[in-house]
Amino acid sequence: MDGEYMVNNLNTTLGWLMRAGYAARGLVYLVVGALALFAAINGGEAEGTTGALAYIFSRPLGAFLLAFVAAGLFAYTLWRLVDGVMDLENEGDDAEGYANRAGQIMSGLTHAVLGVSALTILWKGHASDDGNSAANWSAMLMQHPAGRALVIAAGITTLGVGIYLFIKAWQASYRKDIRCTPVTERLAPFLRYGLAAHGFVLLIVGGLILYAGLTAHAEHAVGFGEALEKLETQPFGRTLLGATGVGLMGFALYCFVLSRYRIVPRLAPSDLPTLG
User: Fold this and answer.
1) Are the C-beta atoms of residues 128 and 120 closer than 8 Å to each other?
2) Which of 44, 54, 16, 48 is nearest to 29 (CA)?
3) Is the pLDDT score of 5 beyond 70?
4) DSSP 61
5) Is the pLDDT of residue 116 over 60?
6) b (16+ CB within 10 A) / e for 42-59
7) How far apart are the first and last CA of the chain?
8) DSSP structure class, residue 179
9) What are the tens digits of pLDDT across the range 170-188?
10) How many Cα atoms within 13 Å fall on the side-chain side of residue 229?
């Protein structure tokens, strides 16, 4: 009886961590996408995830909202760490399974960094004005003997995540982890577009970080916001930026759907109907 209570309690805790995490992640990308779309229509600069956090802070009740986002991002981190270690997605113990589980853990750690950025804004009352942070950390790494190799590895990893999201969108493999309801069935096409848009931006980020490492020129490395700005400078850039902004809002929708309707394969009943 005690064992069953502990399992149910664990399931409830993980469920709240997962849902709060996806909700916070969705809010961040909703702001990123909306600001990119606004920049495409009215001109101006698009913002990355840190810029989105600063924008949230500047709104009415912004400190409260940003505190929620920070808590949610750390909840997402905890969820992904437990998810990867305990293999809650049933990825398996082969090489591909371990790679996917490592990716889940890395996703959690990445969002922990974003959570720290949110806390920093709450503490200082503004975002740090440190220019292109991707270029800054690349330059810092390149001062060490293995620095270029680490930057190259970061670029390859980011490219890999972007490609993975494209494949996930193409195969619609995410559907097996979403409960089948009239709402999720209607929203399914938008979720695919959102995943692809997120992957598209990560390909730009990863490619430029890799180029920075290969050429030993840290200034070529970019983060999410700088990638959107570079997109705007290309031929038909504002059209591309606007489409990407809408896509990132679609990715936010994907996160919100996961927050409400996602299942955890290892913990869910085997007869629960999913979109897959």
Assistant:
1) yes
2) 48
3) no
4) T
5) yes
6) eeeebbbbbbbbbbbbee
7) 34
8) B
9) 998 888 889 999 999 999 8
10) 13
